[in-house]
Design a protein that fits this description.
Blueprint lengths: L1 H9 L11 E4 L36 E4 L12 E4 L5 H7 L27 E4 L7 H15 L6 E4 L6 E7 L7 E8 L2 E9 L7 H12 L28 H11 L11
Helix pairs in contact: 3-4
The chain binds zinc ion.
The site of zinc ion (ZN) has 5 residues, from α4.
């Protein structure tokens, strides 16, 4: 009750765009570090009759140019940069830094620790509200995120396993779509995605909001999570995750939720 009451209060900060978004955060604490420290890198467990323990993910990293490496960045406590993905873009996309300059954009909330899903997601819709065409939009969106993460995403008319995401209509809001999420120690624990009207229940709108559910923020480059807002609608290339977005999703999955940006 108190959580959703708080959600309603903060919703007033949303701006008119393809996406608003507000996050409610539970208690979170994580160690900070810049170059060294953090938990040891996961190592393969030796053959044993006992179950393999869940590896402890590192909580700090360094930037590196992965063009110079043969190992994928997901195996290192390092953050791979290539193409449009710069330190500044990572800072925006993953750590929600402000400074979005794309015209018509929505602003990020400001530098904070990394948040992401850390288990199955259950997307729930009301069949009395959304017709088959809209359900197809939801299905393609969940597949596009599901292709990038190791956790299952279910879509149905009743809750499945994992953190629940409700899809609802909200004619009163000004943006095409918006989302709300709750987090505990950087881990997504549930929330909802809202659409203003049926005409705006579009693939890129839903996929963009689902990208926020995973843990991505806006950024200044092209892509599904671009700060372009409604500008995304005219460019089909922005209807799916860009290479930089996919790189950052992979890097986020290799770090502990709650990891802080390593510097000012
Ligand atoms: Zn957004």
């Amino acid at each position: 009750m108190s959580r959703y009451a708080a959600l309603v209060v903060v919703a007033t900060a949303l701006v008119a765009n393809a996406c608003g978004g507000t996050e409610i955060t539970g208690p979170s604490s994580i160690g900070i570090g810049f170059t060294t420290g953090g938990a040891p890198r996961p190592t393969p467990a030796p053959p044993s009759p006992t179950p393999t323990p869940t590896p402890t993910l590192p909580s700090t990293f360094e930037f590196v140019n992965v063009d110079d490496l043969s190992l994928p960045s997901s195996l290192l406590p390092l953050w791979g940069l290539r193409g449009q993905n710069t330190v500044e873009i990572v800072k925006q996309m993953v750590f929600c830094n402000a400074g979005i300059t794309v015209p018509g954009s929505t602003e990020n909330g400001g530098l904070r620790s990394m948040r992401r899903v850390n288990g199955p997601i259950s997307v729930v819709y009301d069949p009395q509200v959304f017709d088959d065409a809209k359900v197809a939009v939801f299905a393609s969106g969940t597949r596009i995120l599901g292709d990038q993460i190791p956790f299952p995403i279910s879509l149905g008319t009743s809750p499945g396993a994992g953190a629940r995401v409700d899809l609802v209509m909200n004619p009163a809001m000004t943006s095409q779509g918006q989302w709300f999420g709750s987090f505990v120690a950087g881990v997504f624990t549930g929330g909802r995605i809202e659409f203003r009207e049926m005409a705006t229940v579009k693939d890129f709108v839903f996929r963009h909001e689902l990208g926020h559910v995973f843990g991505l923020c806006h950024h200044n480059e092209r892509g599904l999570m671009s700060g372009l807002g409604t500008g995304n609608s005219t460019n089909p290339a922005d209807h799916v995750f860009s290479l930089a977005e996919r790189d950052n999703i992979a890097a986020m999955l290799a770090l502990r939720p709650g990891t802080q940006y390593p510097g000012p």
